[in-house]
Structure formats: structure tokens, C-alpha cells
Design a protein that fits this description.
The protein is of the alpha/beta class and 444 residues long. The protein is built from 15 helices and 18 strands. The chain has helices at residues 16-27, 29-36, 67-71, 88-98, 108-125, 141-148, 163-175, 179-188, 197-200, 203-217, 236-244, 308-326, 339-346, 373-384, 413-424; strands spanning 6-12, 39-46, 63-64, 78-81, 102-105, 129-130, 156-160, 227-228, 247-258, 263-274, 286-293, 297-304, 350-351, 358-368, 388-396, 401-408, 411-412, 434-438. Helix 4 (88-98) packs parallel to helix 5 (108-125) and helix 14 packs antiparallel against helix 15. The longest helix is centred in the C-terminal third of the chain and has 19 residues, at 308-326. The protein binds NADPH dihydro-nicotinamide-adenine-dinucleotide phosphate and L-homoserine.
Length: 444
């Protein structure tokens, strides 16, 4: 068992999160050191541009543009990878692990794409790779899932995992403003990632869903095998129609496992959810994760899913675990290096087929305002096996067209895709049909 008097920490990336970690580790140093029983030394941080002005000031000697100097520094015990991206971050992480360092990350993209390789590398070197901040920012979801709820198997985990899009949908819902206007506002506030597709096309939230699915079910799911849809096609009218029907629209990650059929579905898409659901009340930049365990029932966690302080809180929680592990203390009950545990969780598990994925649907159609159109549309629904629950018609006399809003009873992804493909080919249908899922979680 190591008995170090001090633990030296190197930070790769001194942007939003890196500076937050440094700031809080400095401000709260004495309290943390008391709790951990060890001195914490912030050794160095790396950046790409040494000249950039930063809110958190460091002595020149502590800042470097050479991240490898940190991962190769034998005096450093813990490396926090807070650069982001999947190329340099991967290389640095592998090198730090190979050098016997414990690595802490907030990088969900890296985990999603290379988690298997990185956990294997940590396992091989007998060190830990911690990642609490990679999902839902300040919400301690990783600890909850693999430690607090260790007694459970999870038929359903779902939630709001992206703060930017939740902010946009909330403002659209509350103020009736357009997608373009609210996007402009989100950009001005600095919420949207530099690569906007990560937020708007659901990729960021899908990365997080993949990580949760792995932790709960021991299977890495590729984004190519998931439904991943963002919020770009949602109009202020959709939000209003949903409101009239008693729903809100949220960008939801849904991870469902049928333990009888051993089928797993991991998907990320906007969905209508009843206004009365607690999850529907998770608004603005907040995230929410609902975990249904076979022992505990349903647990809902809500909190700040992004931002400097919330994310730093999660990174520092990992640093604390890293210190315990380095000192030979209790490591997480199940850690990412426990390959056997995760292999067993995922043994025999297959991905659910579209016909296995049950959902009700909302469908927006713009059609010619003519006799017989409704009958043709109804025929397509019937042929595809979709049963209509409600229909609202909004006339648009100036354009001789009408917007039809349908909701359906419970059906499945295969039937919905078939209906959309057929509707698209009808002469009377003037725009690509727009389909949203209706997500009805089981009662808590
Ligand atoms: P930022 O863009 O604010 O910071 C990235 C940092 O990395 C910058 O300091 C940048 O340097 C540095 N950097 C970039 N390239 C290099 C390089 N080649 N060598 C050395 N340093 C480099 O990102 P965030 O802090 O927002 O995000 C960091 C990680 O945390 C990402 O993986 C992100 O997904 C994740 N995350 C972020 C959250 C958030 O709310 N921001 C929430 C949860 C996770 P320079 O400053 O000189 O440009
Ligand atoms: N772009 C992400 C979000 C940052 O909006 O939630 C946190 O991961």
C-alpha cells in the first residue's frame, strides 16, 4: 500500500473545465486535504496558446504548451485530461496510463469512441481511469449507477443529457420563439459547442447514453447502431401542438433492456413527454437522469449538466477517488477495469431490432387541402400497422394546404418507418413527414 504524503496533479487543458478544477482545488484545498489525509499539489497545466488571457491566473512556470511533458513527468500521480477531442486526448491518455498514472477525464466523445481500448490499457497497467464528469456534468451519475445502485439491474434508464438543447427547447416552449432565434441566443450565451452538431444533432447526448449503456449493461454500442436524432427539425409549431396535447418536447436518451429477450436498445431523439412527468419539468440547462432498477424502483437525479463549477465538482470527486486508490484505499466497488463484471453483464445481449422497439408517435404532415386526402393517409397508417389516437387539422387557406397532426397508439419503429416512407410518396403530401416519438415512462 502506498503512503504518499502528497499527491501531484497535472491538468491537460486549461479551458472552462480545467480552470474550474484548478480554481476549486485551490480554494477548497485545506478542506479536501483534511478529508483525503494527503497534501494536494497542483503541479502544472497545459494549453495550446500560452498567450491567451485566462480568468484563473497561474505562475508562468506552471503553464506549458507541451502536454507530453506532464504525462511523462514521473513526479505526477494524477493526470486530468480536459482538452477534449479524440486524437491528442487519446494519445495523451494512453501515454499517461502506460506511465502508471491515474487518469481523470470529462471527455465523453473519447470514452464513447475509445472506451474499450482505454479501459483495457488501464487494466493492463493496473491503474484507474475515472470519468464521472463525462455524463451529466455535476450529477454523480456514474457513482450512483455502479456503486449506489449496485444491487440493481436496469430495464430502463432515460433522461436529458444535453443542457444546450434543453435550454433551447425550454425557451421555445415557454416563449413560443423560433428555433433560429433561440439558437442565436444559446450561441450568444456561449452554451453551444464549437462544433454545433455535437449539441444540435444529438451527438453529445448520444455519447453520454453510450457510456451509461456500457456501465449498466456491459456493451459498447456504436452510434451507427443507434437512432440518433437532434432537434434541428423541431419548429415552434411542434412545441405548441405538443403543448395542446398535454406534452413537452425533450431531447431524450433512452436505454432499455428487455431481460427476457436479452435485447438492448440505446437511442437518442426528441420525444413528447407528458407535462406532468417529473422529467418534463427538468428545464433550461439542467440535466435529468431516471434510473429504474429491479430492486430500488425508479430514482431520478436532476442537476447542472454542464458549466465550469458543476463539471469541476465531478472531476474533483474523481480526483478524490484517485487519491484513495493510489493510497491503496477502497477503490470503486465496481471499477472500469473489472472486465469480467462488464463481460458478464453484456453476455448474450443483442441489440433490439426496430420491430422490438415499442413507441407511440406524433406525426406532422403538410398535405393538399383536397377531398380524399385524409382517407389516403389513413390507409397508409392502417397498412403500416399504425393506429391513430388523435388528429388535429390546421387549415392554411392561403396556400391551399393543411397541416395534420396525428398521434398514434403504441406501435413500433419498423411500422413507423414504413408509414413515413409511404406517406412521403403520396402526391398529396407536400413536405417530408416529421415524426417524433411519444415517450411514456412507467409510473414511478
Ligand atoms: P475548452 O475548449 O474550454 O478547453 C480546452 C482546453 O484544452 C483549452 O485550455 C485549450 O488550450 C486546451 N488545448 C487544446 N488543444 C491543446 C493542445 N494541443 N495542447 C494543450 N492544450 C490544448 O473545453 P472545456 O473545458 O469546455 O471541455 C474540456 C472537456 O470537458 C471536453 O472533453 C468536454 O467535452 C468536457 N466537458 C465540458 C463541459 C463544459 O461544461 N464545458 C461539461 C462536461 C464535459 P487554449 O486555452 O490555449 O485554447
Ligand atoms: N454541450 C454539452 C451540453 C456540454 O450542452 O450539455 C456538457 O457536456
Amino acid at each position: 500500500m502506498a503512503d504518499k504524503k502528497s499527491i501531484r496533479i497535472g491538468i491537460l487543458g486549461f479551458g472552462t473545465v480545467g480552470q474550474g478544477v484548478w480554481k476549486h482545488l485551490t480554494q477548497d484545498k485545506a478542506a479536501l486535504e483534511r478529508r483525503l489525509g494527503v497534501k494536494l499539489v497542483l503541479a502544472r497545466a497545459s494549453v495550446s496558446d500560452l498567450k491567451k488571457k485566462r480568468a484563473v491566473k497561474l505562475p508562468k512556470s506552471k503553464l506549458t504548451a507541451d502536454s507530453f511533458a506532464i504525462v511523462d513527468d514521473p513526479s505526477i500521480d494524477i493526470v486530468c485530461e480536459l482538452i477534449g477531442g479524440t486524437t491528442l486526448a487519446r494519445e495523451l491518455t494512453l501515454r499517461a496510463l502506460a506511465n502508471g498514472k491515474t487518469v481523470v477525464t470529462a471527455n465523453k466523445a473519447l470514452l464513447c469512441e475509445h472506451g474499450e481500448e482505454l479501459f483495457e490499457a488501464a487494466r493492463k497497467e493496473g491503474v484507474h481511469y475515472f470519468f464521472e464528469a463525462s455524463v451529466a456534468g455535476g450529477i454523480p451519475i456514474i457513482k450512483t449507477l455502479r456503486e449506489g445502485l449496485i444491487a440493481n439491474r436496469f430495464p430502463l434508464i432515460y433522461g436529458i443529457l444535453n443542457g444546450t438543447t434543453n435550454y433551447m427547447l425550454t425557451r421555445m416552449e415557454r416563449e413560443g420563439i423560433s428555433y433560429e432565434d433561440v439558437l442565436g441566443e444559446a450561441r450568444r450565451l456561449g452554451y453551444v459547442e464549437a462544433d454545433e452538431a455535437l449539441d444540435l444533432d444529438g451527438v453529445d447526448a448520444a455519447h453520454k447514453a453510450v457510456i451509461l449503456a456500457y456501465l449498466a449493461h456491459g456493451k459498447w454500442v456504436s452510434l451507427n447502431d443507434m437512432f440518433v436524432e437532434g432537434i434541428r427539425k423541431i419548429t415552434a409549431q411542434d412545441v405548441e401542438y405538443a403543448r395542446q396535447l398535454g406534452y413537452k418536447i425533450k431531447l431524450l436518451a433512452v436505454i432499455q433492456r428487455d431481460f427476457d429477450k436479452e435485447a438492448l436498445s440505446v437511442r437518442l431523439h426528441p420525444a413528447l413527454i407528458k407535462k406532468s412527468e417529473l422529467m418534463a419539468q427538468v428545464d433550461m440547462v439542467f440535466n435529468g437522469v431516471s434510473l429504474t432498477g429491479d430492486v430500488v424502483g425508479t430514482t431520478l437525479l436532476v442537476g447542472r449538466g454542464a458549466g465550469q463549477d458543476a463539471t469541476a465538482s465531478a472531476v474533483i470527486s474523481d480526483i478524490a477517488d484517485a487519491v484513495y486508490a493510489i493510497q491503496g484505499g477502497p477503490a470503486p466497488a465496481i471499477s472500469e477495469e473489472d472486465a469480467e463484471v462488464y463481460d458478464a453483464l453484456g453476455a448474450g445481449l443483442r441489440l433490439a431490432k426496430p420491430q422490438d422497439i415499442a413507441s407511440a408517435y406524433y406525426l406532422r404532415l403538410r398535405v393538399k387541402d383536397q377531398k380524399g386526402v385524409l382517407a389516403k393517409v389513413a390507409r397508409v397508417f392502417a397498412d403500416a400497422g399504425l393506429s391513430v389516437a388523435t388528429m388535429i387539422q390546421h387549415e392554411d387557406p392561403g396556400s391551399n394546404s393543411a397541416v395534420l397532426i396525428f398521434t398514434t397508439h403504441l406501435s413500433n419503429e419498423a411500422a413507423a418507418a414504413k408509414a413515413v416512407a409511404k406517406l412521403e410518396n403520396l402526391d398529396a403530401v407536400l413536405e417530408t413527414p416529421f415524426l417524433l416519438r411519444i415517450f411514456n415512462p412507467p409510473p414511478m
